[in-house]
Amino acid sequence: MTDQQRSLWLRTVAVLDQCLTGASPVSLGELSDATGLPKATAWRIARDLVAAGLLAKTPGGYIGGAGLVERGDRAARQLAVRSLVTPELVELHRLTGASVWAVDVRDDREWVIMGSLYDATAVGNRYRDDWGHDPGEPAILASALGRISLAGRPELVDPLLHRGVPRLTRDTQTDSHRVVAALRRAGEDQEAVEHGGFRLGWSCIAVPVCDSAGRIVAALGVVDRTPRFATTRFLRAAHLTADRLRGEWPTATRP
Description:
This protein is of the alpha+beta class and 255 residues long. The chain has helices at 3-19, 28-35, 39-51, 66-96, 120-124, 127-130, 144-150, 154-163, 176-189, 231-245, and strands spanning 55-58, 61-64, 99-104, 112-117, 192-195, 202-210, 216-225.
């Protein structure tokens, strides 16, 4: 974050906080006086917050917007999921001795990492910093996460294949027919295994976490250096963890 971005963020938070301090609407003049911002600056920030639904404009001034309630509910649900996932990841890390992660895949536009634990090797080799999980990028089809989460989702897979899976390493599978076959196997087996295709020298397994209706809402993964990767043991531990989480995750948002 640049100094300019940080300054804008702090001013935005100041305006938002001021509008939430009391029960009465806050006028533009009061907002300017309380924050020390010029009226024109306070007005622009308040205008943008209104457009985002975080504030609402009334005849008496600015008040909290309905978007705050929605975002607050989402944050509370996310915290609840994190509190559920964290101890399970700690146990999975203990059982495997490898790096582990959990990703919420309910939103087709954005997948959210709900928790992760990395061993010293992964941190030292910058695996943690380089790990992509964007469902809108074709590279996701080279990963165990993408294969398990997109299995049986041709409406999402086909546009990615049309753009082409990039060759991330010498072992990346880029042929569309073979990628589709890997997705099919992941769906049938309810597990995905990837060796060196996403990052050379690293292997990963992923298993699904389902809601009470049987729909995939998240994925669990285990990552380690390929030479010491214990596929069978890691899969067994990950499936046990997913079974404990089954039905505990909030219901999937997609139809």
